[in-house]
Design goal:
The complex is a heterodimer of chains A (about 110) and B (about 160). Helix content of chain A is about 80%, strand content about 0%. In chain A, α4 packs across α5 and α4 packs across α6. The longest helix of chain A has about 30 residues. Chain A is globular, with a radius of gyration of 16 Å. Chain B is about 80% helix and about 0% strand. The longest helix of chain B is centred in the middle third of the chain and has 32 residues. Chain B is globular. In chain B, about 45% of the residues are buried. The chains are: A mainly alpha (about 110), B mainly alpha (about 160). Chains A and B meet through α1, β1, α2, α3 and α4 of A and β1, α1, α2, α3 and α4 of B. β1 of chain A pairs antiparallel with β1 of chain B.
């Protein structure tokens, strides 16, 4: 339980730090880069190296490539839903989560088994 | 287009909005750890690129931009949506940088933990900024391919 509390605070801090950077920068397309910053990854991988070792972190890194590709498709889908279908940001970002899950889990199943 | 820092933008975000982002980020990190513990590092790794606070961030951007326009006496619904779409386009570019981050971790993790984390962060930053600086060419290429497929004449990007 203590481990999850530590993860919560480290992750919350990392995500907030990148979000503040995103708030600070202009233009908006540049600020958007921080929406796909490795915030959760840095917090989790640092703990994985510390607790589980290098092999475990390397395996997480390998499947993270598929997760990041899914995030790319997710972001493009959100952009398309907002511009073409005039959905609200809340609806577009929530609906596109199904795309992230399908690409990430499908990609893992296809490439890693 | 030059990159600027706008400190006044920090005042637009209220303390409870910061708290929501902290809580969502912390929750996503704890859940990613739990998934890795239950289903193994391969499943857990996927969730290191989960769009945890994307929903909250995009909604905030839309709300702030809409309010700014409404303060000026204009309807800001469309402007808010456009701002959120631009943010998503930036995230799409940076997620390619995130692929580079993950690939560096995969390749260098066994050499040195610190080296892997530092080089991976540098790779994310370099790839993301490089793609952003060349975004006009990327959008133009996408537009040209789209126009070629649909048979429409190419317009200036």
């Amino acid at each position: 339980m203590e481990d999850y509390v530590i993860r919560f605070f480290i992750g919350g801090f990392a995500v907030s730090a990148f979000a503040v950077l995103g708030d600070l920068f202009r233009p908006k397309s540049f600020a958007g880069l921080f929406g796909a910053a490795p915030s959760i990854a840095l917090a989790t991988l640092a703990m994985a190296f510390w607790q589980e070792g290098a092999d475990y972190a390397a395996l997480e890194g390998r499947s993270m490539i598929i997760g990041a590709l899914a995030l790319c498709i997710y972001s493009l889908a959100v952009c398309w839903l907002l511009k073409r279908h005039q959905l609200s940001a809340l609806l577009a970002t929530s609906a596109a989560l199904a795309i992230w899950a399908a690409v990430a889990l499908g990609g893992k199943w296809l490439l890693l088994g | 287009m030059t990159v600027k820092i706008k400190l006044s933008a920090l005042r637009q975000t209220s303390w409870h909005e910061y708290l929501i982002r902290f809580a969502l980020g912390g929750l996503a990190t704890a859940v990613a750890g739990a998934i890795a513990a239950w289903f193994g590092p391969e499943a857990g790794g996927l969730f290191l690129a989960f769009p945890a606070i994307f929903c909250a961030s995009a909604t905030l951007i839309e709300k702030h931009e809409r309010k700014r326009k409404e303060k000026a006496g204009l309807r800001g619904t469309r402007r808010g949506r456009d701002a959120a779409a631009l943010d998503a386009a930036g995230a799409a570019l940076a997620s390619v940088g995130l692929c580079a981050f993950a690939a560096v971790i995969w390749l260098l993790a066994r050499d040195s933990a610190w080296l892997a984390l530092i080089v991976a962060s540098a790779a994310w930053c370099t790839v993301s900024v490089l793609l952003w600086s060349e975004r006009r060419w990327i959008w133009a290429l996408c537009h040209w391919r789209g126009s070629a497929r649909s048979g429409r004449p190419r317009t200036q990007a």
